[in-house]
Amino acid sequence: MCAEKCPYCGGELEKGKLISRGGNFFLPDGEKMPALFTEKSMNKSRAILLPPDIVSDGDVQFPVAYVCRVCKKIIIPYGIYK
């Protein structure tokens, strides 16, 4: 368990990692799907690529994530991979 509280309901957050097979990203409403998983294409769509990417070199790092089991939300601060 971690000492942080959920910003939605105040419940206790559990720290973990988002585990995936790659190619996961956030796409804002109203934006078109990126044509490729390149930095240029992702930036054009205002998308945020979450690691590991689909061409990972084997040194896979997954993003830190927090889950609130009370309100059933997962919070993923992107850019934090420990």
Describe it:
With 82 residues, the protein is mainly β. It is built from one helix and five strands, in the order E-E-H-E-E-E. The strands form two sheets. Strands 1-4-5 form a three-stranded antiparallel β-sheet, with no helix packed on it. The chain has a two-stranded antiparallel ribbon with strand order 2-3. A hairpin with a 4-residue loop joins strand 4 and strand 5. It is flat, with a radius of gyration of 15 Å. The model has no long low-confidence stretch (mean pLDDT 83).
Largest sheet strand order: 1-4-5
- Percentage of residues in DSSP E strands: 15-25%
Mean pLDDT value: 83
Major β-sheet annotation? 3 strands, antiparallel
Task: Provide a quick synopsis of the model.
The chain has one helix and five strands, in the order E-E-H-E-E-E. The protein has 82 residues and is mostly beta strands.
Features of the shown structure:
two-stranded antiparallel ribbon, mainly beta, 23% strand, 7% helix, three-stranded antiparallel β-sheet, 1 helix, 82 residues, 5 strands, single chain
Task: Spell out the blueprint of helices and strands.
Elements: E1 13-17, E2 24-26, H1 39-44, E3 48-50, E4 64-68, E5 73-75
